[in-house]
């Protein structure tokens, strides 16, 4: 380990790993990169505890385009991330996403988002009640006004696999990855100059990148900065189904999509089981070390919504559950990516509000461009920059699960 690096990345899960990889392969960049990760097991990382989905059904063009690049990386991951004979396969499952709208307001939101998606070239269709019933005959659709279905370009994949692939390739390209914890960040006026590690080492830094997930606010505070991000708990449930509807769809070779019910409860196939979750009725910030599942959510919220939606979800049984954290942006539920306007060598890559895994590839590329070239050269992330935090100007994303 050296005493100074051109770039120090705080956090080594999918966002930090993606930034490191994209930097190391960025044409014209020949600097040194250090990734500091406090927990090499990633047992409580949002990446590891994620439901691992990717979708293009967003209400903002930037989020649609970010996922389109993410899918491109996922589909070509084995080739892009090959190191020696290792070609990591992310086992992408092209299941699609299905949004259901019950109220006129929900239907209008789907229509407005659909216009954005189609303008970006996404393969998404709107269905009326009859078309929905034809495609997915197991669903009760009498109360549904409109449905939005991603015919391609959406699905789920290996969450830890994408992180591990980025990390291994970044290291092979020359990035250093260190197990330690950043406990202090020193500034000299309008610049950060070094990070202090828990081990006692002080590392000089040309640029510091905050990629510390739900702990982003803690990292920012070390540099005397603020970011409106807090950990929000999400409990995921794996359940068995007495009479599974998987295979009954009349689209996509019988495979069911990830369905988002109008209640906010969602579920998707997971092997021979199903995975489900939802937005809690009460959703406070939690302690950074609080990972106790909210067991009652299944009986109180998830099972009733699913049983109402399909007769085949009436007889189900939980076989596993776990809780993870959203790095929740309280301003507008959207990522915060870019330089601090006053401390310009401090870069945020935070606040993904549950979308970090799918937005990791494009975020890594964007931050790498910002460092290497001083500007964005592919996707313009200006709308999701930190300036809107200073101005109190939300850039809302309506399609948040």
UniProtKB/TrEMBL annotation:
Domain FAD dependent oxidoreductase span(s) in chain numbering: 6-370
Transmembrane segments: 7-24
Protein name per its UniProtKB record: FAD-dependent oxidoreductase
Alphabetic keyword roster: Membrane, Oxidoreductase, Transmembrane, Transmembrane helix
Domain of life: Bacteria
A GO molecular-function annotation: oxidoreductase activity
Keyword Transmembrane helix listed: yes
Claim: Repeat is one of the keywords in the record: no
Biological process (GO), any one: mitochondrial respiratory chain complex I assembly
PANTHER family per record: FAD-DEPENDENT OXIDOREDUCTASE DOMAIN-CONTAINING PROTEIN 1, SARCOSINE DEHYDROGENASE-RELATED
Pfam families, per database record: DAO
Cross-referenced InterPro entries: FAD-dep_OxRdtase (IPR006076), FAD/NAD-bd_sf (IPR036188)
One cellular component term from this protein's GO annotations in UniProt: cytoplasm
